[in-house]
Amino acid sequence: MTRDDGSPTAGSSELSSRDLILNTARTLISSHGYDGMVISDLSEGSGLPASSIYYHFGNKLGVLVALLERTFEDLHASYPSPSSFDGHPPLERFELWLTAACTALDRRPEYLRLLLAVSVGSHADEDNVRATVRRIRDYAHVSWVEALTPVMAPLDSAEDRELLEWLAVLGRAMTDGLSVSTGFDGTTYLSHVPAFVALVRGFAENRRLNDQG
């Protein structure tokens, strides 16, 4: 049995014990934060004894690290590469990529919510947690830079690269913030694509006019 997004449900026989525990952990952390997740709840939610949790992950922090690793793998698999849209004009290429990326996030909104949930608390300073979160965020940042480069920095000047990096950070911050508002306000990532594309179009046009002047 699967969810609408194609992933197996917690009660599915297709799932291993490890997957059952990680799916339960994702639900608990998204709802209560990492500090609010306890082994007894993991055991009850997964239908497995606590000994199974310790066997697979060692401790609660081990569950978190494994969940972050799986999140990165899932994100890497579902997040579109800007190069998939090569052959289109630069701005159209960016809009197609952003539309595909936001569609992917709308289908699996728990990914970014999980990252926000684990960013609060003493566990956030653990080296293995920080390294995995940084890897996820660096991957997203590189995607933004790759998508924006043909629009904002085709000549790779220092000034263009600076604006490009700023827009990439702004785009990543937008998706971070939307991970909260999509839950509270019922908005979607996809609904914000036109506004961000218009912002990028305006910067690109201003750059072009400055180059001509």
From TrEMBL:
UniProt xrefs under InterPro entries:
Homeodomain-like_sf, HTH-type_TetR-like_transc_reg, HTH_TetR
Q: Which Gene3D superfamilies does this one have?
A: Tetracycline Repressor, domain 2
Q: Which residues form the HTH tetR-type domain?
A: 15-75
Start-end of DNA-binding region: 38-57
Q: Which PROSITE patterns match?
A: HTH_TETR_2
Please give one Pfam family short name: TetR_N
What residues form the membrane-spanning segments?
none
* Keywords from the UniProt entry: DNA-binding, Transcription, Transcription regulation
Organism's domain of life? Bacteria
| Record-linked PANTHER family | HTH-TYPE TRANSCRIPTIONAL REGULATOR BETI, HTH-TYPE TRANSCRIPTIONAL REGULATOR RUTR
This protein's name: HTH tetR-type domain-containing protein
Query: From what organism does this protein derive?
Result: Kribbella yunnanensis
What high-level taxonomic lineage is stated for the organism? Bacteria, Bacillati, Actinomycetota, Actinomycetes, Propionibacteriales
